[in-house]
Each structure stands twice: as structure tokens, then as C-alpha cells.
Design brief:
457 residues; Aminopeptidase; Glucose Oxidase, domain 1; eight-stranded mixed sheet; alpha/beta; single chain
Length: 457
């Protein structure tokens, strides 16, 4: 029998005793009233005000991985876990980040007054040449006339790689790219290996001004990128562990996670102070709740850099731990008033123990939660190690995702509370002392029908 199937049946009480005496026993009868009673032990303690206040506190400033802002958040999270009585570990890890250095532009011998930012991966170089506007830099728009020149490009339609490569293929010496319509700022863009020309970004208004200038006169430009390159930074995972009663330990582990870092320049109220607050709330209310399953509450660093914290944590798990982890619940962006409904995403688009329990808990607490397929969050490293995992998130996302407008005033206490209640009820279904259930325990969750939802993020 596959390992995950065994995990599912153990955790939900669906494995029946194989002893001969169990053959004549009465069949398991799911008792939804009993499950409601057990749910209430957990969800009645969840406070929407407390959830909201944590989001407010965490989102006062950005928490980009490797910065002082992240470390302040880590200290707060560790203090909270310890105040609930948990054994708490800070797990540091080193990652490489990009230092953009100093970039500049000179136009017709006049220093450009706007903000200039090097693309991630840009080479350090200084180039002087004529400026040529090549539109969106599609292969049809870029001609041999750009050879030796600095290409002025509008962002949009095709990838950064294609834009830069198309002008390189025609011999361009450098790139100035301006933002697309509807986007603010110049914090965008990256180059790839082999794209060895300096590439910088400016905002849309400044880019359109250069286009207008080119329409009336020849423009000579100079772009310079200096000091750009990779640097080592340190980020942290925070892990709080609750051991089961020593006489009731069934050997299982359940992990509940969120990521505490934000994007650069973004306060990250929904992404993901909301998830962190949910993890802390469940840790608080479970701290004095009898359990027979080890619970690990955790927040990850450097999710926005490529799931680095969760990959690091997953890599430290022994095979014994992997075999004993029955489920991983990931909470990411669970509080925006302007996002869609709650959904459970799995990396492979298949149901598993976590989605089964989440759907059943949703039916008891609010309404059935559907599932879909998506990676892009910290459930992926657990899934890749064979652990049943799912991401709980509201989708489609709000308009200010990954922006400075991701602020606490756009957080819904009701969404925060309901999502935390659903996950809390699902976790407790595994962790409460009368599960795994034998055939006569009558505590297995009732089957719930839930469907695949091909919903975009």
C-alpha cells in the first residue's frame, strides 16, 4: 500500500483493526455531531481581533528576506511562540541575493534625474551610444539598425529574456526599459546567462518622455552599471514544537506553516502576515489542548526569493521524520477582503489527506472548500519529499498583490478567522487524542464531496 495512503487512513481514523476480533465489530459510523463538538474545542477560541492585530503589527514595515525588517519579525514570532510555552528554534540559512549597485543614465550630456535600477543579473559596464526606441522589442520590431546602439524598450507582451535577447541578436550595446501601462516604479526585470550588456529600468513616465524626445531629435545616451552582483545574506525559519502526551503519542507529526518575509518595499499585510497570524493563533489555542500527535508550527524565510526557507527546512528532515509527517498545511494570503474564495492548491492537482480534511472541516465550519493545482508556495518542498501537502489561499488574488498597497486596512477579519477555523478543525481532526480511530470509535470524519476548481491565482 502506498505510504501516503497509509498516512491518510491513520490520520483520519480510516484504518480498521486487522485483528480477528475486529471482524465482527460494528462498522465505523461517521458522527458529524461529535466532530462539531470537537471542532468547537478549537475554533471557539479563535479571535478575529487577535488575528487582525498581529497582521497590523507585522505589516508596519517591509520584511524582505535578509533585512533588519525580517529579523524584527522573526524575533516577534519567536517571542510569541515562547510565550505560549513552545520549544522554539531559529533555523538560519544563507542565500544569495542581488545587490543592484549604482546605475546611472546621461542623455545628451545631461545627467538623467529619474531613478535608475539595474536589472537583476545585469553586467557591470558603461556604454555610450545613440538611443533607439524599438517598441516592445518583438523580433518583428527589432531591426539591424539597433546595432551598436542603446535600445529603449517598453515592458510588456513578451518576456524580459526575449526582449533583451532580440536586441542582443541585432547587436545592441545596452538596454533602457521602461514600465508598462498600469505599473508603477522601476523595480522589475532580470537578465539571463549570456546576456552580457548593461540593462537598466526606469518608470513609465520617464520612458515615454524619452520616446517623445526621440521623435523630435537624435538622442545620445550613456548608461552605467557599477557594483552590481550577488551577495550572501542570512534568513531564518522559526519552528515551534508541541509534543503529545507521552502516554498517548501515536508517532505522527503534523506541520502548519506560513512565510514571514515580504517583497521588497511591500508591507505584506496579506502576503503573508495574514498566514503568520493564522499559524500563531493556532499555536496559541493548541498549546493547552490535549493531543496525541506532535505538532510543528513554523514560519519560513525567503519564500519570495524562491521558497528558500521551506526548501531548507525540508532538506533537514530525516527519512524517519518524513515518514512520520502525516500532513503539511500551508497558509498563504488568507485575509484579503478583495480576493476570491478560499481554495486548496496541491502541486499535482490531486486530492490528498490535507485536502480531504480541509474539505470536511470546511463543510462543518463554513462550507466545502474546493481544490485546484498550483505550486509557487511553501507546500511544494514538503510535497516533493512525499508528504501530503496543500496550500490554503484565497483566489483570484487582490489587485495590490506584491505592491506597497498590501496594507492592513484591506484585511478582512472574517476571512482571517474563517480560514484559521477551517485549518484548525482539520489539524485537530488528526491531533485529538481519540484519533487514529479503531473500528468502534465512531470519530472518523464523514465523507465530503468536493471538486477540482481550475481557478487562476
Amino acid at each position: 500500500m502506498p505510504k501516503n495512503a497509509i498516512k491518510l487512513m491513520l490520520a483520519t481514523g480510516l484504518i480498521l483493526s486487522s485483528a480477528p476480533a475486529a471482524v465482527d465489530a460494528a462498522p465505523t459510523i461517521p458522527n458529524q455531531n461529535a466532530d462539531h463538538a470537537f471542532d468547537n474545542k478549537v475554533i471557539k477560541k479563535i479571535s478575529g481581533d487577535r488575528l487582525y492585530e498581529r497582521v497590523n503589527l507585522l505589516s508596519q514595515s517591509p520584511r524582505e528576506a535578509g533585512t533588519e525588517g525580517e529579523y524584527r519579525a522573526v524575533q516577534y514570532i519567536q517571542d510569541q511562540f515562547e510565550s505560549y510555552g513552545y520549544n522554539t528554534e531559529l533555523q538560519p540559512f544563507t542565500f544569495q541575493d542581488w545587490d543592484e549597485g549604482v546605475s546611472s543614465i546621461v542623455i545628451n550630456n545631461t545627467v538623467f534625474n529619474g531613478d535608475v535600477q539595474a536589472f537583476t543579473g545585469s553586467v557591470n559596464a558603461t556604454v555610450k551610444s545613440k538611443l533607439e526606441f524599438v517598441g516592445l522589442a518583438s523580433s518583428e520590431e527589432v531591426t539591424d539598425s539597433v546595432k551598436g546602439k542603446i535600445a529603449l524598450i517598453e515592458r510588456g507582451s513578451i518576456s524580459f529574456y526575449e526582449k533583451v535577447q532580440n536586441v542582443i541578436n541585432k547587436g545592441a550595446a545596452g538596454v533602457i526599459m521602461f514600465n508598462r501601462e498600469g505599473e508603477e516604479g522601476n523595480d522589475f526585470g532580470y537578465t539571463y546567462e549570456g546576456q552580457n550588456i548593461p540593462v537598466v529600468a526606469i518608470n513609465r513616465e520617464e520612458g515615454l518622455s524619452l520616446v517623445n524626445q526621440l521623435n523630435s531629435e537624435e538622442v545620445n545616451a550613456e548608461i552605467a552599471v557599477q557594483g552590481a552582483g550577488t551577495i550572501d545574506k542570512i534568513s531564518y525559519n522559526v519552528i515551534a514544537t508541541m509534543q503529545p502526551h507521552k502516554n498517548k503519542d501515536n508517532g505522527q507529526i503534523v506541520t502548519i506553516g506560513a512565510h514571514h518575509d515580504s517583497v521588497a518595499g511591500g508591507p505584506g499585510a496579506n502576503d503573508d502576515a495574514s498566514g503568520v497570524s493564522g499559524v500563531l493563533e493556532l499555536a496559541k489555542i493548541m498549546a493547552k489542548t490535549p493531543i496525541d500527535t506532535e505538532l510543528r508550527f513554523m514560519t519560513f524565510g525567503a519564500e519570495e526569493k524562491g521558497l528558500l526557507g521551506s526548501y531548507h527546512y525540508a532538506s533537514t528532515l530525516s527519512e524517519d521524520e518524513v515518514n512520520r509527517i502525516a500532513a503539511h498545511f500551508q497558509m498563504d494570503m488568507i485575509g484579503s477582503r478583495d480576493s476570491g474564495d478560499l481554495i486548496m492548491f496541491t502541486p499535482d492537482g490531486e486530492k490528498n489527506l490535507v485536502t480531504d480534511l480541509g474539505a470536511a472541516a470546511g463543510a462543518r465550519v463554513a462550507e466545502v472548500v474546493e481544490y485546484g493545482q498550483l505550486g509557487r508556495s511553501d507546500h511544494v518542498p514538503f510535497f516533493e519529499r512525499g508528504i501530503p501537502s496543500a496550500l490554503f489561499i484565497h483566489a483570484p488574488l487582490e489587485p495590490w498583490y506584491h505592491s506597497p498597497e498590501d496594507t492592513v486596512d484591506k484585511i478582512s477579519k472574517d476571512k482571517l478567522k474563517e480560514t484559521t477555523e477551517i485549518i484548525g478543525a482539520a489539524v485537530y481532526q488528526i491531533a485529538r487524542p481519540d484519533t487514529p480511530a479503531l473500528i468502534n470509535a465512531r470519530v472518523a470524519p464523514g465523507p465530503v464531496h468536493y471538486e477540482f476548481d481550475d481557478r487562476p491565482l
